[in-house]
Amino acid sequence: MYARSTTTRVSPETLDDLVAYIRDDVMPMVTQLDGCVGLSLLTDRDTGRCIATSAWETHDAMNASAERVGASRERAAAMFGGTPEVQEWEIAVLHRAHRAGEGACARVAWTRTDPANLDRVIDAYRESLMPWWEETPGFCSNSLMMNRRDGRCASAVVFDSREAMAHTRDQFMTLREEFVSRMGMDILEVAEFDLALAHLRVPETV
């Protein structure tokens, strides 16, 4: 499975309009393309940062969608401003305990490691992090995406509510720091978002 993420920063005052555009115009178009298995949208209302991620059955399907998705991206930039940043990923792990409902949110950690280390990271992620998350109140799902060329990874953990996510902040920081130290990884950024759209039909890739 593969994914394309588009990060955009807009004025916080226009965020609801951008979410509506992605929900009403972009998502119906993208999800009918061959090989698409859904779309999600993360938003930060304080900064106006949005991350839209489309998921694809194969790398070829993702590549074939580039022109039509790019046109929607350019239209959004013309309407709302901002310079989109596009990244492509392999979905290495996806586990859903239950579907996210209204009010769900996500904590995303971006890291980098030696590309030769990625298979080891995947195994350790499954064996040491996921069992802990399964026991965490309010846990919905987790995913790990990676770029095998440069060793970048993006891990997202979704919770039922802001309250559930806040209760894990200290524990997650300790767990994350121990994990990246053991795996020889660098933390690039950690951020928290609202889960504005979650329409993924991606099968379990645990």
Entry keywords:
eight-stranded antiparallel beta barrel, 206 residues, Alpha-Beta Plaits, globular
CATH architecture descriptor: 2-Layer Sandwich
CATH topology: Alpha-Beta Plaits
Measure the end-to-end span: 12 Å
Helix percentage: 25-40%
The radius of gyration is 16 Å
Unreliable runs, pLDDT <50, ≥5 residues?
none
The side-by-side strand order for the widest beta sheet comes to: 1-3-2-8-5-7-6-4
Order of helices and strands: EHEEHHEEHEEHHE
Beta-strand content? 35-45%
Q: Quick one: overall form?
A: globular
Count of extended strands: 8
Mean pLDDT: 92
Global structural class: alpha+beta
Could you give a short account of the major beta sheet?
8 strands, antiparallel, barrel
Report the top-level CATH class. Alpha Beta
- Total domains: 1
How many helices?
6
Q: Can you put this structure into words, describing what you see?
A:
The chain has a single domain (2-200), classed as Alpha-Beta Plaits (2-Layer Sandwich), CATH 3.30.70. It is globular and about 45 Å long. The chain has helices at 15-31, 59-64, 66-80, 118-134, 162-167, 169-183; strands at residues 2-9, 36-44, 49-56, 85-96, 105-112, 139-147, 152-159, 186-200. The termini are close together. An 8-stranded antiparallel β-barrel has the order 1-3-2-8-5-7-6-4. By secondary structure, the chain is an alpha+beta fold. The longest helix has 17 residues, at 15-31.
